[in-house]
Write a structure and sequence with these properties.
The chain is an alpha+beta fold. The protein has 3 domains: 165 residues; 230 residues, no CATH class; 235 residues, no CATH class. The chain has an 8-stranded antiparallel β-sheet, covered by helices on one side. Strands 8-9-13-14-16 form a 5-stranded antiparallel β-sheet, covered by helices on one side. Helix 1 packs parallel to helix 7. The longest helix has 28 residues.
Length: 692
């Protein structure tokens, strides 16, 4: 029995419960059996639920495709209006507003409940009545407590939420895992492959928030010649194939690839699906997670659209703090293991993700609200442990040493009036001559391989002063420290990178302004001692404690420290000058930004969980600097070896005074001086600077 048949059977079984719940919620919208203070909240949430009921009916009766574009736009606006833009200021999903209206204790809890209930939107479009119904029943249960306010306590309401998250954890986690691995869960893929993509009404069938970014992107791709869109898809999928080839991994053993992208790029994805099929791969298209059990802070991992409100996403990034304890941690890990076990045959043939990133959205500097849920120190420790255990299970079932990936990036219309020109320039950047870059980068690697360490000094307002210790080569004729990165898994071309030796890597990394993981950092500083972050700060807020917490939460992911997992020198001066020409440096994704100067990653190395797989450059030399002192702990205690994060921080060329390689005898080889490449053999990299 296929997934769609199972879904139909499941919907039939749950139908009566669904209808009874909707009938009860229709009454909640009208009756006033809770206190006056609480009534507006329950009325507002009930009204949202009843809009979702209308969506369920339209999907089941196949009426969505009879609506005009304007009607679909109006429906989409109504579904997201409450949290979009300024409306969020007076939304019960906003913890600040909810606490002001409902009191601090109930405000946080009920803002969370409404946010979780918003996930039923996607279940409505996907016709997944089971998940939808269990959330309706939770809402009714909480409402019932407030009806009998003399007989309940805050702990009773919180316990109802806790029990729900624990009881249904396996259902939510398994559904999420199935979206990744089960090609029968074809909701998004069917829209992409079966819709008339020239009729942009299809954008509204996903159930995501649709803006001018998605509409103009789709129309722009529709305006392109067919061969150009095919070429974009070819670059994407060929990079994926080459990734397996370059890393000597056997693609023929794999059957499933997961595509992740932002809505609007369906025309390109359509051809990517066909290309992957020629490679023997069927595709899954997994939606970014909506519920707290499956989300990773505010990050969107999976297909998604422009957020209706980034502050909304940020406010709810730690909602698990309302229920995360040791018992829930065990329950989550049990659920993850159960999901993988049920899907172990599919997990074994999973090839890895193929990702289309976007850039150009307005920069976002979040407000740190005291009313938003935070993790206490115990919960921070538990979530780190939980993430580590999840990744061990992923390693076991997905066989991470056998998988690969590819990632490419394009701008969205929000980048401004030069959108189409920037898009064309990005296509050019994504298709630069890999062979030419490979030759130039080999010159840099040959110099670096002579070094004991590298000195990086910032210029002007950049106060970086770092000494990065390099791996000691035993057989320089056969070994190298740096990977020569051309355009395969990591498009565009343009970097050489290594795993630094931690002992002896010391100093300060400073960036006056940088945008990482959708968040802006001002005057970011990280201090390293023997390759470990020993101090960190930024100047986003007047309060220094807030600044430290901001860095810890969003760069260190609530860990006490992270190692330097990568040191690289980016060589894509064409991308750098594109950013300067259009004044979009701050909006570049890390995928491109990391190629526009030296960069340093905190977290795991680039070879995480594949350190024992030999990797070679095109010259035949083995890249031996795949480990550091922490990742080597996997041989004795794997739980201490990985951090399950890797964040690149780039210094642009104009902020570089020098990058110099120092041999053991103290002699020096300059690579970059005063923002220009000075190493013989790299002169061509300065050409884009001179064309400005």
């Amino acid at each position: 029995m296929g997934y769609k048949d199972l879904l139909k059977e499941e919907n039939t079984a749950i139908r009566e419960r669904y209808e009874l719940a909707m009938e009860r919620i229709a009454l909640i919208e009208q009756e006033k059996t809770v206190s006056g203070r609480m009534f507006p909240y329950f009325q507002s949430v009930a009204s949202f639920v009843l809009m979702v009921k209308n969506v369920v009916a339209m999907v089941e009766e196949e009426r969505l495709n009879t609506l005009t574009e304007q009607e679909l736009k109006a429906l989409n606006s109504a579904l997201y209006n409450d949290i979009a833009g300024e409306n969020y200021l007076v939304s019960f999903a906003n913890p600040a507003y909810a606490c002001g209206q409902l009191g601090d204790r109930y405000g946080k809890l009920l803002a969370f409940l409404y946010t979780e209930l918003r996930s039923i939107l996607v279940y409505a479009f996907e016709q997944r009545l089971y998940e939808l119904t269990i959330y309706l029943e939770l809402f009714i249960e909480v409402y019932n407590y407030f009806e009998a306010e003399d007989e309940y306590t805050y702990k009773d309401v919180k316990r109802a939420v806790y029990d729900f998250m624990s009881d249904y954890c396996d259902i939510l986690v398994t559904a999420r895992t199935r979206e990744l691995l089960d090609t029968g869960m074809s909701f998004a893929r069917d829209i992409i492959m079966e819709s008339d993509l020239e009729d942009i009404r299809y954008l509204y069938y996903f159930g995501e928030h649709i803006t001018e970014n998605e509409i103009r992107t789709a129309r722009f791709l529709n305006s392109m010649p067919e061969e150009q869109v095919k070429a974009m898809a070819d670059t994407f999928t060929e990079g994926y194939r080459i990734g397996f080839e370059a890393n000597r991994k056997d693609l023929s053993k794999k059957r499933i690839v997961n595509i992740r992208y932002q809505i609007g790029f369906e025309r390109m994805v359509y051809y990517a699906v066909l290309n992957f099929k020629k490679l023997g791969l069927e595709t899954t298209v997994q939606r970014a997670a909506y519920n707290a059990v499956n989300k990773r802070q505010h990050l969107k991992i999976g297909y998604h659209s422009t957020s209706p409100n980034k502050q909304y996403d940020y406010d709810h990034r730690f909602d698990t703090g309302l229920f995360f304890d040791k018992a829930f941690q065990r329950r989550k890990i049990e659920s993850v293991k159960l999901a993988y076990e049920q899907l172990k045959d599919k997990a074994a043939v999973y090839a890895g993700p193929a990702v289309i990133e976007v850039f150009g959205e307005e920069l976002f500097a979040p407000e740190d609200k005291k009313e938003a849920v935070k993790l206490n120190k115990r919960q921070q420790k538990l979530t780190v442990e939980c993430t580590n255990e999840e990744n061990m299970l992923m390693q076991e079932y997905l066989r991470m040493e056998e998988v690969s990936f590819t990632i490419i990036s394009y701008p969205v219309p929000e980048i401004g009036k030069d959108y189409e020109e920037i898009f064309a320039e990005t296509v050019k950047v994504n298709t630069l001559d890999s062979k030419e870059y490979g030759r130039i980068q080999q010159c840099i690697i040959d110099a670096l391989d002579q070094g004991d360490h590298v000195r990086i000094l910032g210029a002007g307002d950049n106060h970086t002063d770092l000494r990065v210790k390099l791996y000691d080569l035993k057989e320089p004729s056969k070994e190298t420290c740096f990977e020569n990165c051309v355009a395969d898994v990591n498009i565009p071309v343009g970097e050489v990178f290594t795993s630094p030796v931690l002992t002896g890597t010391n100093g300060r990394l400073h960036v006056p302004k940088v945008y990482l993981n959708d968040l802006e950092y001002l005057e970011l500083e990280l201090e390293f001692k023997d390759g470990i972050t020993v101090d960190y700060s930024c100047k986003n807020y007047p309060d220094e404690i807030k600044n430290k917490n901001f860095v810890k939460e969003n760069l260190l992911y609530n860990r006490d420290f992270l190692p330097m997992g990568e040191f690289a020198i980016g060589t894509n001066t064409t991308a750098y000058m594109m950013a300067r020409k259009f004044d979009i440096a701050s909006r570049l994704p890390i995928l491109i930004a990391e190629k526009t100067g030296p960069h340093f990653a905190i977290g795991d190395t680039c070879y995480k969980m594949s350190e024992d797989v030999k990797v070679f450059n095109l010259d035949g030399k083995e890249i031996v600097a795949r480990d550091n002192e922490i990742s080597l702990l996997r041989k004795t205690d794997i739980s201490k070896a990985y951090f399950n994060c890797h964040t690149d921080i780039t210094l642009p060329y104009n902020e570089i005074k020098e990058i110099t390689v120092y041999r053991k005898d103290g002699s020096a080889i300059p690579v970059i001086r005063d923002a220009r490449f000075v190493l013989p053999g790299t002169e061509a990299l300065n050409a884009p600077f001179d064309m400005n």
